[in-house]
Design brief:
Strand order of the largest sheet: 1-2-3
Shape: elongated
Order of helices and strands: HHHEEEHHHHH
Structural class: mainly alpha
Number of helices: 8
Distance between the termini: 83 Å
Number of strands: 3
Largest sheet: 3 strands, antiparallel
Length: 245
């Protein structure tokens, strides 16, 4: 978002919106971009999470230079919401200072249309995460109990829990990956001309796919446990019959 400030600065030089402010910005371009971003009351970056979003500024400057690289300084996070969906257009509209509109930023309407199209899919993904996390918790608790109690019934129950948790988390992870790819493509395609860029959260995607993989491993482990336990019980019964003979 910091590059939006640079674009706005370039556009404002031929308009009266910023007036004397734009002409008074001097010195290094990084400082100018930071000044414009603060003037517009928008932030350098917005990090989108499953239940909320966070925003902040890059320090010491928004653009890397020969002496330092910028790092994120989070200044605010929204309240967590059950079925959260990030709407960048609505967020920017609520933050822009009075007298400045999205039209002044040349904000592409295609971004709003594209993100809105993903809203329903995003809510389905969140619901699947809720179900998957709950099932994963039950699977973990069942595994602890099953390791103590044992038996074929316990193995089957834990297998079903782990399998359904894997399927739910796997589908949710797939949806999250698709949303991340489509959302970043939409923003990068239509926002590039105003200096807007989006990046996929690789850490979150790695975490969610790892959770699904763990549930798959747990399901396979319970299949092995069931087969081994059944073979052990069959051998025990056969040996008991031979002993009676």
């Amino acid at each position: 978002m910091s590059m939006v400030g640079r674009t706005f600065l370039d556009n404002s030089r031929s308009s009266s919106l910023l007036g004397s402010f734009a002409s008074s910005v001097k010195g290094d371009i990084n400082d100018a971009v930071s000044d414009i971003t603060h003037y517009l009351n928008i932030h350098d970056f917005y990090s989108v999470h499953l239940l909320n979003y966070c925003e902040g500024y890059y320090t010491p400057s928004a653009v890397a230079n020969s002496t330092s690289n910028p790092h994120k300084n989070v200044t605010h996070c929204s309240n967590q919401t059950g079925l959260f969906h990030f709407d960048p257009t609505a967020v920017l509209r609520s933050e822009l200072r009075q007298g400045v509109s999205l039209q002044n930023l040349q904000w592409p309407s295609a971004i709003q249309d594209g993100i809105r199209a993903l809203q329903g899919t995003s809510k389905v993904m969140t619901i699947l995460y809720y179900i998957g996390i709950a099932l994963a918790g039950l699977a973990i608790a069942g595994s602890i109990i099953g390791s103590v109690v044992g038996g074929g019934i316990s193995a089957v129950v834990n297998l079903l829990l782990a399998l359904v948790a894997f399927l739910t988390l796997g589908i949710a992870s797939a949806i999250a990956t698709v949303i991340a790819v489509k959302a970043t493509n939409i923003i990068n395609q239509h926002g590039n001309r105003i200096g807007l860029a989006a990046y996929r959260g690789s850490k979150f995607l790695a975490l969610t796919w790892t959770a699904a993989a763990v549930m798959l491993i747990a399901a396979v482990a319970w299949v092995v446990e069931y087969c081994v336990g059944r073979r052990r019980r069959t051998t025990y019964v056969k040996e008991g019959r031979v002993g009676r003979l």
